[in-house]
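Posting for a labmate who doesn't have an account.
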Amino acid sequence: MAAAVIPCSSMQLLHELKRRARHAIAPVLGIGIFGYFAYHAIEGDRGLFAFMRLKDQVVEAEQTQREIAAIRAELDHRVALMRPDHTDPDMLDERSRMMLNLAQPDEVVIFTKRQKATVGTPVGVPLPPLR
């Protein structure tokens, strides 16, 4: 008879847990779904951190593009100086000396890191005069 005195049996406890679980499942599921989307909005392939990395890459690419454009403009200018319709005599003289590795006997030639001498033709062989 002692068992009949306990007001809460295991069956009632199980029923009460099921009833409360039914009320709690929607908020727990909602929090889980919200957490999933919030995590991927920050860490995902198209999230906030990926956007910041992509923004840095765009800045680097724009800087590289500006450097390449400056180099191209310099090369375009040098090519324009070598055009047959208006050849710059100084540019022609510079290029012929560098490519043929020739100089006047009374000249001193100093090579920088940017210029390379070609092997074969000795320095000091006179160049024909410019017309």
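Reply:
Got it, the structure tokens are right above this. Confidence is low (pLDDT under 50) at residues 1-6, 115-122.
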